[in-house]
Design a protein that fits this description.
The chain is an alpha/beta fold and 485 residues long. It is built from 16 helices and 13 strands. The radius of gyration is 24 Å and the shape is globular.
């Protein structure tokens, strides 16, 4: 049966019909307003959401590309940058820009380092040294800007290995990176030690605080221990922090801060000879949505330091409850020592992906992770009201998996079979099977599907190139029209 492609309607539909259709589609999404999602969405309550909506709508048509046409946006953006710099160890020399999110911030940090290396050091084959846990947006930046990545291992505590980083630095190194915290396990890399190494070797040092930048500054006043991580650390030259995460701003809003303007200069772009006039932009985007800038300014001013401290205290109390409750369940453990409200659940005796499937069946959304297998939790203000419900469902999921020996046996058999097949089947056959598998994985990855066996099998595949093609097939599929369910 052929799929009929959507077409532009011959005549416009009514406002009610359009909105009802959109609402019907959204009804199938994860219920983040009820605190069911442990990633992707950060919700600080209806009052903040209403403010964001109103502020965004007020500047919905404005374009941050040209601040001479919209000086209001220039004022809002510079104030957002100044406020965040004040929280993150900046001083009067600190400069920065808002971006569309953490990925754009990291792309620009790498582009800046590449151009700095060319201009200041004559480096034509630039390299950057990253811990294994650094965000893959840095891999994307390396791919886009032709910078070689040197990945170094992390220690048993999941923090960057400073000795390994030191050994990886070469005359072509332009940038070191540390995370505060890193996303998979929520631990903070040894930023001070990495920054000292960067100073010693005369290279740049970027701190990826996209997750923690708008929460870590409010932990210290509440009595939590936070290692030094920001622009006040000698040797740190740039830092990124997402406002649409723990800043609870509307998407997409991040800031990229530099120690001084001399370095930020390498981020900027200008084309001088276009017949349409001089074209210049500070970030990757041309058109820059005014609504995202306005909403970020609005929420920072609406909550203020006291509001963020209050939210942070609630989030940390919720985090401790979930962390301690998870650790109390037989077979579960929390990887490392998370510094804030990001953590990973794992097990030495249970199939943690099966636990994830059981939670999915109960309406919860958690990311699956690998090396080692784990479930990811990013806890925000929305989870305070549902922490007890989540822990009850987590306990039930663990008990179900503990009792369902048959399913775990089947999953283990599938994984063993996959290992055996990839050892003796011709490589072309394995590739063909993987292409077939991509369709099945797309269907199984939905909210109601079971994925444990599939994750376990994929983790065993020796040909990462084939696995990459499978993933790209899935990404392509996300933008193809679907039949109505």
């Amino acid at each position: 049966m052929s799929l009929e492609l959507p077409r532009l309607p011959a005549y416009g539909r009514s406002r009610a019909e359009v909105l009802n259709r959109m609402q019907a589609l959204r009804d199938h999404d994860v219920q983040w307003r009820r605190g069911r999602a442990f990633s992707l969405v950060f919700h600080a309550g209806d009052e903040v959401s209403e403010l964001l909506r109103d502020a965004y709508a007020l500047f919905m048509a404005e374009n941050g590309l040209n601040p001479t046409a919209f000086p209001s946006l220039r004022r809002l953006e510079t104030e957002v940058v100044a406020m965040t710099a004040g929280l993150l160890g900046g001083d009067a020399a600190t400069v920065g820009n808002m971006t569309s999110g953490g990925t754009e911030s990291l792309l620009l940090a790498v582009k800046t380092a590449r151009d700095w290396g060319r201009a200041e050091r004559g480096i034509t084959r630039p390299e950057m040294v990253l811990p294994a846990t650094a965000h893959p947006a840095l891999d994307k930046a390396a791919h886009y800007f032709d910078v070689r990545i040197v990945r170094v291992p992390v220690g048993p505590d999941f923090r960057a290995d400073v000795a390994a980083t030191r050994a990886a630095v070469t005359p072509n190194t332009v940038l070191l990176v540390g995370s505060a915290p890193q996303y998979p396990h929520g631990v903070i890399d040894p930023i001070a030690e990495l920054a000292a190494l960067a100073r010693e070797r005369g290279v740049l040092m970027h701190v990826d605080a996209c997750v923690g930048g708008l929460m870590l500054p409010f932990l210290r006043p509440l009595g939590y221990r936070v290692p030094d991580f920001d622009l006040s650390v000698p040797g740190v030259t740039s830092l990124s922090a997402d406002l649409h995460k723990y800043g609870y701003a509307a998407k997409g809003a991040s800031v990229l801060l530099y120690k001084d303007n001399a370095l930020r200069r390498y981020q900027l772009f200008a084309a001088m000879d276009w017949p349409g006039g001089i074209y210049a932009s500070p970030t990757i985007a041309g058109t820059r949505p005014g609504g995202a800038i306005a909403a970020a300014w609005a929420v920072l001013n609406f909550l203020g330091e006291a509001g963020y401290r209050r939210i942070t205290e609630t989030v940390m109390q919720t985090t401790i409850k979930i962390r301690d409750g998870a650790r109390a369940l037989p077979g579960l453990k929390v990887l490392g020592e998370p510094a804030m409200s990001v953590m990973a659940l794992a097990s030495d005796t249970l199939d943690i992906y099966e636990v994830g499937d059981e939670l999915t069946a109960r309406g919860w959304y958690l990311d699956r992770q690998q090396r080692p297998p784990s479930l990811h939790l990013t806890i925000n203000h929305a989870h305070a009201a549902v922490a007890d419900e989540f822990l009850a469902d987590l306990a039930a999921a663990v008990e179900t998996v503990r009792r369902s020996g048959v399913r775990q046996t089947v999953n283990a058999a599938v994984v063993r079979a996959a290992r055996a097949l990839t050892r003796w089947l011709p490589e072309a056959w394995v590739s063909a099977l993987l292409r077939r598998l991509s369709g099945a994985l797309g269907g199984a990855g939905g909210r109601g599907g079971r994925t444990a066996a599939m994750y376990g099998m994929l983790a065993t595949l020796p040909n990462r190139g084939d696995l990459r093609e499978l993933v790209l097939d899935l990404v392509e599929g996300f933008t193809r029209p679907q039949a109505d369910s």
